[in-house]
Amino acid sequence: MKKIQMVDLKGQYNEIKEVVNSSINEVIETTTFINGPKVHQFQKNLEDYLGVKHVIPCANGTDALQIAMMGLGLKPGDEVITADFTFAATVEVIALLNLTPVLVDVDPETFNIDIEAVKKAITPNTKAIVPVHLFGQCANMEALMEIAKAHNLYVIEDNAQAIGATYTFKDGTKAKAGTIGHVASTSFFPSKNLGAYGDGGAIFTNDDNLAHTIRGIVNHGMYERYHHDVVGVNSRLDSIQAAVLDAKLPYLDRYNKSRQHSARRYSQAFEPIDNIITPVTINNCEGICETCDCHVFHQYTLKIKGVDRDALVAHLQANNIPCGVYYPIPLHRQKAYADTRYNEADFTVTNQLIKEVISLPMHTELEPDQIDFITKTLIDFVKIN
Ligand SMILES: *Cc1c(COP(=O)(O)O)cnc(C)c1O
């Protein structure tokens, strides 16, 4: 058995070495390092893949979120509702722009923003909702878009973890994650489902005016050379990263399928064990990702009941099985984001999840014998503890 890794970027690279190298070489040979043709080519190819009118590449996923909020013209004091159980980048940019973050609890099954909690958090100052499609599965976009419409709010999808996922509406219509809200952000951090070999990110929207505004914001607020109409930022996807991404994009569906296969093998092994709760896929699809891409498993995250999760983490590590706890501390209890407005009773799900979740190795090169070793090691521990 090969050494188990949380993410195997080298194994993936070995399989596509020639295409990636030649794509990178084109950039070097033409010295089109900034805003070169590769950036434009990748942008177009991603627009086609997603079925979205505009992709605006930028430097990373955190910038993408910030720029999306700047593009919408959100003003200091505007309230932005987002999930308590997510990576800090989401709330960080809200705070950076002097908007008011309003953290709410999540759904215990999908780990995604809780619809009732969103409704409860709306005030006359609410301007936007930021659902995070956590671990590879879309939040309940249908309900969120209805709420947004009723209250005149923007929906900004944080799609850093679910690129390539498909969302199915109740009437059977399908849309790619990140193309449903008013605007979306994604990250091409190397370990994401579509990862660069460095930093990268992008903003997606179907709104022509918003796309125009955002194209200026990423480029120092310039719409005409040396005319600075708004305060912008410098946030570019560099051409070498675009070259890597453009070479990898044709493999994205295959990569996501491979993650789904691994997830299914994990879940089948864990299914009989009561203390291990496997990831739940909730969408209006057939449910098990056999025929659709409703969950693309950026992470494969279990809930462990009645067993000391931290002891389990130590046991896996002792057996050379890497694992992760995403996320160990709720955002409402982080020093930077704690606020007297928050009431612990409003975060019962997140407060429980942080004690129970564990994410297992998940990447495109996982092999069946590795998964079987992981499931056996984990189940043996849970049975005797
Ligand atoms: C990775 C991630 C980000 C940030 O992406 P960077 O490219 O690292 O800036 C934002 N939100 C979520 C949910 C993420 O997982």
From TrEMBL:
Keyword entries, A-Z: Aminotransferase, Pyridoxal phosphate, Transferase
Recorded superkingdom: Bacteria
Segments forming a coiled coil: none
Residue positions, PTM N6-(pyridoxal phosphate)lysine: 192
Catalytic residues in the record: 192 (proton acceptor)
An MF annotation (GO) of this entry: transaminase activity
Protein name: DegT/DnrJ/EryC1/StrS family aminotransferase
UniProt key word Amino-acid biosynthesis: no
Species lineage: Bacteria, Pseudomonadati, Bacteroidota, Flavobacteriia, Flavobacteriales
InterPro entries to which the protein is assigned, alphabetical: DegT/StrS_aminotransferase (IPR000653), PyrdxlP-dep_Trfase (IPR015424), PyrdxlP-dep_Trfase_major (IPR015421), PyrdxlP-dep_Trfase_small (IPR015422)
Recorded family membership: Belongs to the DegT/DnrJ/EryC1 family.
Cell wall biogenesis/degradation recorded as keyword: no
Biological-process GO terms, alphabetical: polysaccharide biosynthetic process
